[in-house]
């Protein structure tokens, strides 16, 4: 308690203030000595995010405990009780200039992909300018499917997000090359960038990222159907970039020129996906990283590659770190045939693969096929079959799994029996179209 020697000189308002202060101090020490307060930090990770604001409002002591959790990654969709996430976000922007600098500096992640504009409610057009000005320690920004994000959203004049390392602009319909270049100049510390489904991106944007962001290590440009060779040639030319992950799924305009340059200079790729591209087998052979550094490789649905020749290349190649492989079921069938050669030809490093994914599994594929694969890939722990569109699906008028238990073909029921019969391997069947909850036409 605070003692005063000259109480007579104090007015009544000062006395009441001192008494309130004394009560707060006493309450503070009482709370800190309580058992619940002591175990609260242990319970905090298990408390639902919706309840975190309630904990923060208990008093100043608990507010300090939950402050990092609440502000590190504000979830506007989780704390919206009466209003929607858009209203909460706009309210957040309105109050951001007035909160303490130390509190604003705790904001490291912003996930805006759940914001949906309506006819009457719009996102503050200056949202990025406000975020840039006050969220100075922002490291992750997710704008996936943000239809409200366009060229007018970019701050005017000089701006920067010096701590931003992760950026997701996937499926933003208004994002183009010019916008990406501006963002690259303002966010030079980017390490991971997702630009999936950008139909207006032709390649200058990715080239700008390669030129401006020296720390760039992971890039995803799935289904950038307008992107040309200049983009990946730029990635190859800027040798100061140590690119580790690259996903080129569905980039149909890329040619052998771009793939050859990429194979020559991107020598440290640990993750590579060239599925649904025009990459040829001769181009694949040039990727020396596949033999030395690549851990995850997707070479499925390559229309210009012969399955038998691809299987021979897979069989004869030497892999030092490959653990996850995605390929067509037809290619895997050719591999199984190769595995039936005389014993002296069975020395292949493909056996070290632990995760296998096979695309377009034909209907009525026998279970013996699975056992042949498990014999070939002796270290396998997970195998996923992505089934083709079966005729019976269309005849029945709906997509359902034909899984009568008496069938010996690969079905959900048979794989369930297989999984229960042993503990080493988990086998699953995936139906891309009906398992995909996103109805975007890009996924059909």
UniProtKB/TrEMBL annotation:
This protein's name: RNI-like protein
Taxonomic path: Eukaryota, Fungi, Fungi incertae sedis, Mucoromycota, Mucoromycotina
UniProt-listed InterPro entries: Leu-rich_rpt, Leu-rich_rpt_Cys-con_subtyp, LRR_dom_sf
GO biological process: SCF-dependent proteasomal ubiquitin-dependent protein catabolic process
Superkingdom of origin organism: Eukaryota
One GO CC term, this protein: SCF ubiquitin ligase complex
